[in-house]
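Job type: complex structure
Entries:
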Amino acid sequence: MNFDPRFSGRKFTSVGTRPIRPDGIDKVTGRARYGADFNMAGQLVGRVLRSPHAHARIVKIDISKAEKLAGVKAVVTAADLPDLTDGDAAMYDVLDNCMARTKALYDGHAVAAVAAIDARTARQALKLIEIEYELLPHVTDVDEAAKHTAPLINDAIFTEGLEEKPVKPSNVTKRSQFGHGDVHQGFGHADFIVERSFKTEQTHQGYIEPHACVANFSSDGTADLWVCTQGHFVYRQHCAQLLGMEASKLRVTSSEIGGGFGGKTHVWAEPVALALSRKAGRPVKLVMTRDEVFRASGPTSATSIDVKIGARKDGTITAAEATLRYSCGPYAGSWAEIGAMTAFACYKLDNVKTVGYEVLVNRPKTAAYRAPSAPMAAFAVESAVDELAKKIGMDPVDFRIRNAAQEGTRSSYGPVYGPIGIGPTLEAVKSHPHMKAPLGKNQGRGMACGFWFNFGGQTCTDLNIGMDGSVSLAVGTVDVGGSRASLSLVAAEELGIDYSQVKAIVADTSSLGYNDMTDGSRGTFSSSMATISAARNAIKILRERAAQMWDIAVDDVVWEKGHAIAKGEKHGNLGKLSLKEIAVESGKTGGPIAGHSELVADGAGVSFATHICDIEVDPETGAARVIRYTVVQDAGKAVHPTYVEGQYQGGAAQGIGWALNEEYIYGKDGRLQNAGFLDYRIPVCSDLPMIDTQILEIPNPNHPYGVRGVGETSIVPPLAAIANAVSNAAGVRMTHIPMSPPRILAAIEAEREWSK
Amino acid sequence: MAGVAVSTTINGDAVEYLCQPDETLLDVLRDRLGLTGAKEGCGTGDCGACSIILDDRLVCSCLVLGAEAEGRRVETIEGMAHGDTLHPLQQKFLEHAALQCGICTPGFLIAAKDLLAKNPDPTEEEIRFGLAGNLCRCTGYDKIVRAVQDAAIVMKGA
Amino acid sequence: MRYIRPLSIEDAVGQLAGSAGTAAILAGGSDLLVRMKGGFAEPELIVDIKAIDGLSEIRETAEGFSIGAAVPCAVLGENTALKKAWPGVVEAAKLIGSKQVQGRCTIVGNLCNASPAADSVPALVAAGAKAVVVGPGGRRTVPVQSVPTAPGKTSLAKGEIIEAILLDKRAPRSGDAYLRFIPRTEMDIAVVSAGVNLTLDEHGVVKSARVALGAVAATVLLVEEAAEVLIGSKLDEATLERLAKVCAGACRPIDDKRGTIEFRRKVAGVLAKRAATTAYARAGGK
Amino acid sequence: MVEVTLWGSLAATAGGNSKVEIEAKDIRELFRKLAEQYPGIEPWIDRGIAVAIDGTIYRDTWSKELPEGAEIFLLPRLAGG
């Protein structure tokens, strides 16, 4: 059946309300089962041995002593995970990251693993594995690694995307470029130009739940995997490919997930757990420690960005240019490319050029982190935009409004925008009471904008109507923050029934067709589209059954407010049949009633946000404290507004942590020095104020309800909003994130020295 | 390594177990007793996801040995509701959507219960500092603080 | 590995002294269990001292206060008399870790962990606190600053336990304060810290002073020169500036993941000023 | 005939042309003909290319028609968090 995804402008009954989530009781009573909360009979404990070296050739691994230790049931190395990737370079990198093959490429890189009867035995066994390393020179800084004198991390990599084919290998894996117009000419028309360089340090998603799974490989070649993941179908594909299995023989169940933010979008230890289980012939539970999470999973890129923006006296930007260098860890990525696409996406520009360079470093493999790559680019661009507004003497909000992209604008990354929300978020900020609130001593206010694409993708959903008229909704996108509630609302809306009649679950990989993962803010966008489609398919069957019950033609039956209604005067005495009444008779009218849908949810609507932030800086210590924070963001349509607010607040909080204190700190030896929550400082409750939110709803024309993604955009503006606020509070322009107290104090002291 | 026999009280029930001398109470609760409501987010007392109440004191169960529970009273998230009746904090966390992924929720509820037991009428600042030992990465804490404020009002009225 | 819970200090000392391998004392466990988790400590004997008579008590004596080695820091904050007499010591103890950690950790543990950044130690040093050490050779009383000798190292001999911390009875017109700098508002290790303890004469002039700095050297520093700056003053602006300068000069900090040398020097002075101001007000100075 | 705009790096593989004319009625045909005319693009297509049609981004929909006169823009496939 053809599904029409276009926005219909309907009035809503359920969508937009704020009911309690269906998985709530289990989560407040401790009954919800996360990755580490599942056990199997005969289960072993898996543990991973990791390289203490930033860069080393693995000369020899001797596992014989470990294998002989009583209680050890399996020891695996790269030899137990042979390369079955068949030329798929991206999957080869995933494999090599799961278990180092010829070289350890970062501190924390997995080199072997054991399965034993208990944790103590497993720990002892790791100590008995003997590895001979040949130490190699390492490089962890993005700018250092990009130099042609830097130690090479992979001598088979030659920079892609250069006009002339390079003859020497490089740590720069790719150059990418976006833009239009002629920036040289554009800068020629500028009365004012701001040009600055910025750096941001590497951060981690910081989910509170470490990676955890239980793998059970059976002797008949089938396997089960229980795992916390943002995409169990993707994990199934990865694991099946790396283990040489048919996908359908591996059933993956996604546990409740204790946070992901992009960090649980590809496999880390899961293929290792399966390999251990296969070798031991028993189930294996593998849970990372926090130290392992920091050293070997996640992080986002560290960056180095040069920005140049020019404008006329009247405040029109004439040209904008950026060069962005993003670290990828030791494997090729496309992180700078995304940064280059998003950098100027908020603005209407005749002349724009961005160039991205992907840089290999001896750090963990970069993973997506909430609107990956966009916050760093926004930090650089929005800092420069603020400075330019000041130079011109314009209010920073007015300056942005003047240059904001709108419907019909050619985006800096290429396509022309449809209806978008950057202008409205700026107008909302301009009139927000926060902008007029008085500031105290040592306080400053900053604002900044942010952009994210949002994704759609492959989606499959089942909607089953029970014989009692209740509805079970099985979706394949993992619920990371309340999507079962929003999807239940959507099902209730479309069927015209009460929210309480719907129960949504996340189905395992054997119960439903393939779904892309919950990333790119696609969970509610895609699965709501599939849910609407499934519900409409179910309604078609409900109408047929009602027609049968009434013994009239199906074309004479319409569906309204949860009921089949016979239309036309000839059926005037038939009244209406509720969903429940039809369901009760379903056994006699053709059997179970269900709606299924499989689709590619295309047309995700881009999203914009503008944030306002007040900061107080202690001029004697450099401590910066967020006093007030406001998020204004376009949701398209907020299906469950409370959880939309939650996404806005959570993204802002992560951005605040990133801006002020979070960073990976490496020693000269290339080892990570702060692999724990004590010294990797994510914000605590007392660090933050309430985070006010304002939801704007500019409908996405490509979704029946107008939904856009909401999950990611909120992390994009904070770095810049806070930098701009610090600039206004302390009179110093911070160009290095995080703006930790030593950095702010040093900047204040330098400013004092300079003005003497 | 000799096992330690422990007799203790968990959520009001007498419980006996045998544990290793270096085994944490968190591991005992989760792996021996099936009480998986307390979570291990760090294992070093920095995230509060494993919070429990030990003899009326809020502690991280990852920083307590299983052997130390001998003769003491342990309260975990599993004992917070009375049968079908949720504790007001649990109810308010649901109503305010004070959880997204929910992994930190048991720890926050236990910490908030301890906070309100010692200070039934806390200011926002007291709540924020009182809960600073519990990390949440999803919510930005806003809705958590509001849920605790609201629960405090309900509990005072009760 | 064995876990024991002796009922007397003599038994605990005997077990520790007689143990063949590594032995660890367990009170709050907030350092020990973290070290065990990380594989940095694998003691063959764990001696839990919480069941020992008197070790979980704060006693008010004619000489002052005796704080048992197993008293959790949270309990210090609940003792009104102690809080009134030594607010700086109590606020320092209540800054260690989180509420959860404060329910377990002890000031003796904080002292014996011998971290230069320990929160309670600068306050105790400033307060002139003493430690009662019990060992195979009997009981001795030592100033707290003599306990840590280097990061992770103490002057305690095998078999020795600190039984209690002693704080003097307060002279009239006395006040103390402790401040630390951390990047967050809670849940951090001090990047720099300062403890100040003052007694004033009847005119509000500082009669005696002790200033201690944390996280700026291998062990907590008692800065006598800083005390001299304060004595005889009423904490006027110039005195405070001199204090800051002396404190910054006394530091021997390092660059590490938590802060830079420059930052530590500068902020040590700032915190000393602020702590002195608070201590002065607490002593009744105006 | 549709005019297709290539992003900077992709243009390099099409002989430096940022705009190419392709006779294609849907995305599948577009990819096929692009690969025929510019073999250097094929590996990029294999890795995944997104197609923006009048500003709406499509990733995997072969059957999506390319309306006459529509703005067709090729983009890299992205990762999300």
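Summary: Chain B has a mean pLDDT of 97. Chain B has five helices and five strands.
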